[in-house]
Design a protein that fits this description.
single chain; mainly alpha; globular; 457 residues; 84% helix
Length: 457
């Protein structure tokens, strides 16, 4: 694909068709990426005689996993829109410099996080709510996964640079390759070699390694427009800082997800014990069915909005936003309906422990009561990112979790007689409030942002 072809694709082709071509592979990729953790949990939850405890223990690793993902996306989600805007301004060399700088930062993050999390894993898992029964399972999984941090960083941090060039299908294959490896290796290592949770972790690391190699081969190959080269890896502050500034909103969203998970687990362990924490592990997996595809839709809209914003084509930006907004709102509403009607279909996938399943069915309906609004919030917040609005995007990312949800997790148990109900109901309350504020903010500001143009982003 030549640079001229790239301009024709993003600058003149039908916006709905472009959204379809870019978003569908991205959504599929996100759903497949979700299988890394969900398949692990499904198999772990069915380990004979230890499934419920093992599932709870591995679920306690989620805050660490989310922090690793957050640092990867700090570079990836901030760098990819900046690279797309640069390409829209015909600055291909600048876009390539962004790619190289983001890669270097990802490698620095990988080394630091591996050392810190490997040493501190036992204390962190205790902090997250691990009991004497669940800690061995969580620690066995955590330490193996942490050793593969560099591969997670490469996949999550560099794959957005493939999507933003218009290679959505190749980006999808990156996750397909890893997920297929994981699905094949999980039962072999967990049950065939009797490795239990350690087998699940080894399968995931091997799968992420395969995906990482796939990404690096592409970004060094003949098809990519943005090539990963050694000279571009020299960190230049004026190149990397704007990328990190833009990516910090996604970083906050993911890192606060980690803090959020800790808050939920600590409160639930206090008021409901191991069964409540186990239910939260299942609910966290179910919530990914909502959030990850929404992120995939926005990955399809981001290159279109960013490129045309850089090119000064305001109406195409608005059209892409409308497509993204309707797709996100429709998907979230459909998932909300399914969760309310048949929560047992989701809870039963992860465990055959009747006590845990029945508890999860009750909790899932409460927790998911407001997810119909999540599509609106994510569509609007990600649009601020696509248009390079780092400060507003960060504020909206902080709103739902830091400003609303985390305080409510600790406040509402003192309001309701059923304290566990108070913990779970904090989620829908914050979902609806955050969606209302974020949508209002975008609709009142988007015309002004487009008038100022990319030079002021």
């Amino acid at each position: 694909m030549s640079q001229q072809k790239r301009k024709q694709d993003m600058g003149n082709d039908s916006v709905p068709r472009l959204m379809l071509n870019l978003a569908v592979p991205a959504v599929v990729a996100q759903l497949i990426n979700m299988l890394y953790n969900i398949v692990d949990r499904i198999y772990i939850g069915h380990i004979p005689d230890a499934g419920a405890s093992a599932l709870t223990g591995v679920g306690l690793f989620l805050p660490i996993l989310m922090m690793i993902n957050a640092f990867a996306m700090l570079a990836g989600s901030g760098g990819a829109p900046r690279a797309a805007i640069a390409m829209g301004q015909n600055d291909r060399a600048g876009a390539q410099k962004i790619l190289g700088n983001c890669f270097s930062v990802l490698m620095i993050f990988s080394a630091a996080l591996t050392a810190v999390f490997y040493v501190s894993a036992p204390r962190l898992l205790r902090l997250f709510g691990a009991s004497d029964i669940t800690l061995p399972y969580g620690l066995a999984y955590a330490r193996i996964y942490i050793l593969g941090t560099v591969f997670v960083m490469i996949v999550m941090g560099l794959n957005p640079f493939i999507t933003t060039q218009g290679f959505a299908k190749f980006s999808m294959v990156t996750t397909v390759v890893g997920a297929v490896c994981n699905i094949i290796l999980d039962p072999i290592l967990i049950f065939g070699f009797h490795m239990g949770v350690q087998g699940a972790a080894v399968a995931t690391v091997i799968s992420q390694t395969v995906s990482a190699m796939w990404v690096l081969i592409f970004l060094r190959g003949p098809k990519t427009m943005l090539r990963l080269t050694l000279p571009d890896m020299k960190i230049v502050p004026k190149v990397i800082f704007p990328c990190l500034a833009l990516g910090i909103s996604t970083f906050v969203m993911l890192s606060t997800e980690s803090i959020l998970n800790i808050s939920f687990n600590s409160s639930l362990a206090r008021y409901g014990g191991d069964v409540a924490v186990g239910a939260m592990t299942i609910i966290s997996s179910c919530s990914q069915l909502v959030t990850l595809p929404l992120q995939g839709i926005c990955q399809g809209g981001q290159p279109i909005m960013s490129y045309n914003f850089g090119a000064g084509k305001k109406e195409r930006v608005k059209m892409a936003f409308r497509c993204q907004f309707l797709a996100c709102a429709g998907y979230a509403a459909a998932l909300w309906l399914m969760m309310m009607i048949a929560p047992q279909a989701f809870a039963g996938i992860f465990s055959n422990d009747s006590t845990l399943v029945n508890y999860t069915i009750w909790a899932l309906r409460i927790y998911m009561a407001g997810i119909f609004s999540t599509g609106i919030q994510i569509a609007c917040q990600q649009t601020f990112m696509a248009l390079g609005q780092a400060k507003i995007s960060l504020l909206m990312a902080c709103l739902r979790k830091l400003i609303l949800l985390i305080p409510l997790i600790f406040i509402l148990p003192h309001v309701f007689a059923d304290q566990v109900f108070g913990v779970f109901v904090a989620e829908p309350v914050s979902d609806i409030l955050a969606a209302t504020v974020t949508a209002t903010m975008l609709f009142t500001r988007i015309n002004g942002i487009l008038e100022k143009g990319a030079g002021k982003a």
